[in-house]
Amino acid sequence: MASATGDGGGSVPPQTTKVEACAVTEEATPGFIPVKECLSGIRAALKHPTVRFLREKMDQAGCPVWPLLIQAVNCNHASGRYTSGRGITVCCNQIRYQDMIDQVLIHELIHAYDDCVTKNMDWKNCGHHACSEIRANHLSGDCHYKREMLKGFLKIRGHEPECVKRRALLSVKSNPNCSDTAAKDAIEAVWDICYNDTRPFDRAP
Ligand SMILES: [Zn+2]
């Protein structure tokens, strides 16, 4: 994905699209919303203040995210995906409610942002991918305690970094260029820098 294009332009057709950054689906439960509802959910998510903020920042960084770059599809084991040069896919068959669509869009927009502003972003590089997953899981609120509680993962306050690490690891492990060990090592290596890198937010929302 991103690496091959090299320019980080989110709207430039890629030469290769092998590696993808994704948001993981941690559990599969029946009751997913119909595609039509999913599409109107994507339109609604475009009005979410954080989504608007991120799209504005992408515009300013020179990588506008047109609604056409956001697609509704069916996927396995992921709720969303960002592919450099192609855009964002929302996996409707993994979505159960509007909040999930908002989350997927925010998460994937952070990958798109990283792809846009990081010089020589290489999605095949486990460290680069790990950094973007840490940021996407941290800054999107994927690990907000209410969402964790819904999934039965809540332990105590302060679980947030653990959740970010767990989810980032699942995503980096799904990168064909990163073995389980490489994914784990990459996350540890970049953790401090990337967890504390809250761009384009002033601080973690
Ligand atoms: Zn991701």
3D architecture notes:
The structure is a single chain. By secondary structure, this protein is α+β, with helices and mostly antiparallel strands. Strands 1-3-4-2 form a 4-stranded mixed beta sheet. The radius of gyration is 16 Å and the shape is globular. It has one domain (2-195). It is built from 8 helices and 4 strands; from the N terminus they run H-E-H-H-E-E-E-H-H-H-H-H. Mean pLDDT is 84; it is low at 1-19. The structure holds zinc ion (ZN). Zinc ion (ZN) is lined by residues 21-23, 107, 111, 133, 136, 171.
Uncertain ranges: 1-19
What gap, in angstroms, lies between the N and C termini?
28 Å
Bound molecules: zinc ion
Largest sheet: 4 strands, mixed
Total count of domains:
1
Give the overall shape, derived from the CA principal axes: globular
